[in-house]
Specification:
Its cofactor is FAD. This is Oxidoreductase. Helices cover 20% and strands 34% of the residues. With 238 residues, the protein is an alpha/beta fold. The chain is globular, with a radius of gyration of 18 Å.
Length: 238
Amino acid sequence: MSGDWLPATVIDADWPIPTGRSLWVRVDGWPGNLAGQHVDVRLTAEDGYRAERSYSISTHGPSPVLEFAVDELPDGEVSPYLVHDIEVGDRFEVRGPVGRYFVWEPQQTGPVQLIAGGSGIVPLMAMARARRDSGSDAPFRLLYSVRGEPYAYFAEELEQLRDERFAIDWVYTKRAPEGWHRPPGRIDRELLAELVIPAEERPAVYLCGPTPFVEVAANLLVDLGHDPSRIRTERFGG
C-alpha cells in the first residue's frame, strides 16, 4: 500500500440503488489494485476538519479510474455527503490500495464461493470482473442476499457474467420478485447447504457484508464442514 494521500477527481456517478451511489474517480499516481482490495477516502472541510472512511473497490488492475459504492448511513459523517452532495469534478484524497488478505488472483484455479450481503458485493464484483478479464475458467458461485430487487448493486452486469462455470443465486430478505421460487427470508443453514459449493470440494470462500450477516454466515459454513482457514471475510458496520 502507498502511504501517500493521492488526489482523486470524481468523473462519473449514478444511483444504482435507492439508498446508495456508485462513484468513478480518477486518481493521479494510482499504483493499481488487486481484486478485493479497498481504499481509504479522506474528506477535508473548508474549516480544515478531516474525516476518513474505507471503501471497497469494484474495479481491478492498473487503471487510474476506480469505482466504489457508498451506502448512506443516516447518522454517518461521510456517506451522506458522498451519496447526496458530491458532484462530477469534485475532488478528495485517497490512499491505497489496502489489504492483501481478501483478494482473488487469476492464478487461483480452484473453486470460488462468493457470498455477499447488500453492498458487500463490491469487492466480490471486482473478483468476478477479474475472472472475466483474465479468461479464467475457475468455477465461481455467487450467493447475493439483498432486501429486494431495487437494492441489488450490479444486477444487470452480474447476469451478463453468468455462465456454465459461474452460477449466481439471489436471496431476497424483505420482498422477493413476483413469482419467485423462494419466499423472502434471511440466510440459514438449509439455504447455505443448498446454494453454496459443498465443503468437500474445498472452495475458497469470500464473504462480505454487514457484521451480523458475516458472523452468521461464517459460523454456518463452519458448521457445514467448511475449513475456517479457507473462509475469508470482510465486514462493515457495528
